[in-house]
Amino acid sequence: MRILVIEDEPKTGDYLLRGLGEAGFVVSLARNGRDGLQMAAEGGFDLVVLDVMLPIMDGWQVLRSLRLQEGGADIPVIFLTARDEVQDRVKGLELGADDYLVKPFAFAELVARIRTLLRRGPPREDDVIRIGDMEIDVMKRKVSRQGQRITLTAKEFGLLHLLARRQGEVLSRSIIASQVWDINFESDTNVIDAAIRRLRSKLDDPFEPKLIHTLRGMGYVCELRAP
User: Fold this and answer.
1) 2-119 has which fold?
2) Among 42, 115, 133, 143, which is least packed, fewest CB within 10 Å?
3) Rounded mean pLDDT for each run of 10 residues along the chain, 227 residues in total
């Protein structure tokens, strides 16, 4: 497995380069955001470990740009940063990060999180899910409505997949947070609502009928409702 580390602090970058290499990964290192984005965009990496406070381009900009590039939407990204405020963690996840680990960190935990993300895959029993005119090819991670391809980030796909495979079931925000982000969100954050809005803008706004519905005070459900 190939991992790209984007880290400008020399000691931390060298430590990750050596340690992840010893853990069995093939590791490349970029020491600023611009070079890191270029390397990630060129492809071939299975996962990116990304710092926030980077020269030239910060980590937020790198991730935002990467998610908009062809092939960049599906690369798992772990933020590894000293920024430990709740709003920073929320921002990172809202931008499409798959995990967020705060410095100082335990190297064993980082490796465990990397391996968890690399192992994660769609359930085999749901190769194709159809709801109305929407089709989700789980193995190819492709989504379409009315025959039109819909491009989703890795996190948006995970959110849609959860809603679709449990279609008709109302899922609370806490269930969505734990299943899609593997984390418990504080009750006053709007990460789930923001993610649903982004998903609807791609999946529902251009089409009829709507498939993602809100039940106030309860959560969200994906289903085809009778007109």
Assistant:
1) Rossmann fold (3.40.50)
2) 42
3) 94 94 93 94 88 94 86 85 86 87 91 88 62 90 93 91 89 80 58 91 95 91 86
Q: How far apart are CA 90 and CA 202, in angstroms?
A: 21
Per-domain boundaries in the chain = 2-119, 128-222
Task: For the domain made up of 128-222, give the CATH fold.
Answer: Arc Repressor Mutant, subunit A (1.10.10)
Are the C-beta atoms of 51 and 80 separated by less than 8 Å?
yes
Using a cut of 0.85, tell me whether the model's pTM lies above it: no
Let me know: does 212 contact 199? Beta carbons within 8 Å. yes
Asked, as a colleague might, if the bond just before 227 is cis with ω within 30 of 0, I would say: no
Cα angle for residues 45, 49, 53 (degrees, 5° grid):
130
For residue 75, give every residue at least 6 positions away whose Cβ sits within 8 Å of its Cβ, in sequence order, or none.
Answer: 40, 45, 46, 47, 48, 66, 154
